[in-house]
Amino acid sequence: MRILLLSRSLDTGGAERQLIAMAKGLHERGHSIGVALFYSGGRFQDELKKEKIWSASPNKKGRWDIFPFYINLIKIIRNFNPQYIYSFLGPANIMALLVKPFVKNVKVIWGVRASNMDLSRYDWLSRLSYRIECRLSGFADLIISNSNSGLRHAIKNGFPAEKLVVVPNGINTAEFHLDPFERERLRLAWNIQKDDILIGLVGRLDPMKGHPVFIKAAALLAQKYQNLRFACVGKGPVIYRNELQELATAEGLSRKLIWVEEMENMTAVYNGLDILGSSSVYGEGFSNVIGEAMACGTPCVVTDIGDSAMIVRQFGVVVPANDPDAFSKGLEEMLGILSGSNRDLIRRRIVNHFSLQKLVENTENILCNIIK
User: Fold this and answer.
1) Whole-angstrom Cα distance, residue 82 to residue 345?
2) Confidence label for 118 from pLDDT (cuts 50, 70 and 90)
3) Strand (E) or helix (H) holding 13
4) What is the pLDDT of residues 143-162, one digit of tens each?
5) Is 120 a residue whose pLDDT tops 90?
6) Which phi-psi region, left, alpha or beta, contains residue 257 (left: φ > 0; alpha: ψ -120 to 50)?
7) Residue range 347-369: average pLDDT?
8) What is the pLDDT at residue 165?
9) 3 state DSSP class of 32
């Protein structure tokens, strides 16, 4: 099969990492894979070069570079001549349909990756883009959601149910694994003492991730347990970071909470944590962070958003969203069972159900058998 994956960019992000994993996996299975990007030069683009996967970009010059970008994108896609265009996220989904009339015998597959989005928190163009996506969804040949909650949300907003299927994300269980050495090295670097329990939130600084919930829950718990340390790992707007840090100081966590913008070695981070907290309040579909942490054997406390509860099953604690008191109690429950948790069993949950191999196989089967 000749498959073109279409995305806005390859900067840091869950959707981008899934695109790279899918491109490499399908390429290894003998398919002709191409990647077209609105903007070139993203963090993950070098991985395509290493694997000798074709990629190209019209090098969009900004939000309002529309017509020249559109013409150049058509030329790029026609040059690759795909059988399938598999697009990732709203803007790419819309553009995939707009170029379809100019590419012979091509099928368009959309990728949707979020659920229960609060569009009021985004700018007017993002809201308009989603409305257009909803209106155009019936023209896609197939729509792949990475979560059951995302599928339900799409149907609720007018996406055709008969064209929707679920393919859960795939976790790189070779990269994310149990590593006692990396655990000790990270805890030493972060000055975490041997008897300290480290609880972390990993995710970009975005209102959907619920950092205030995590901070307030941490403050409640820190009043009861003196050996707790906390970490927030992720980048975000400076203004929002300052707001969150001010909140942490007001809650008395200035000496207990570590802020880390970005880590190259996320395997070390997940191994270094004793508990991962996922405090998302909306918008989560399939959380890569939860899957990656569990692949490293780290138990998770998650809010009941997206497919988080389905991912952790009996190996984690699930609490209501947007409730610091409930999240604090969930963390405390996990503290009570922490010594008896089996990191190998936690990892096995991901290996058995959400591996990269399953992602690639499921996608390949859908393209071969569903789209005719």
Assistant:
1) 41
2) low
3) none
4) 999 999 989 989 998 999 99
5) no
6) beta
7) 91
8) 93
9) strand
Give CA–CA dist 280/287, Å, rounded: 10
Two tokens, residue 350: 């991901």
pLDDT of residue 122: 64
DSSP H helices, the chain, are: 14-28, 45-50, 67-80, 90-99, 124-136, 148-156, 180-189, 211-222, 238-250, 266-272, 288-295, 308-312, 324-337, 343-353, 356-369
Tokens linked to 206: 């975005």
DSSP conformation letters of 149-212: HHHHHHHHTT--GGGEEE----B-TTTS---HHHHHHHHHHTT--TT-EEEEEES-S-GGG-HH
Which range is least confidently modeled, 78-82, 128-132, 322-326? 128-132
Q: 328-332 long-range contacts, Cβ below 8 Å, gap at least 24?
A: 328/216, 328/217, 328/218, 328/220, 328/221, 330/301, 331/199, 331/217, 331/218, 331/221, 331/275, 331/277, 331/301, 332/221, 332/224
Beta-carbon contacts of 223 under 8 Å, excluding residues fewer than 6 positions away, are: none
> Given this model, what pLDDT does residue 197 score?
97
Which tokens is 65 given? 């570079």
Rounded Cα–Cα distance for residues 93 and 137 (Å): 9
Alpha-carbon separation of residue 297 from 180, 270, 343 (angstroms):
11, 8, 4
The helix or strand, by DSSP H or E, that contains position 43, with its residue range, turns out to be: none
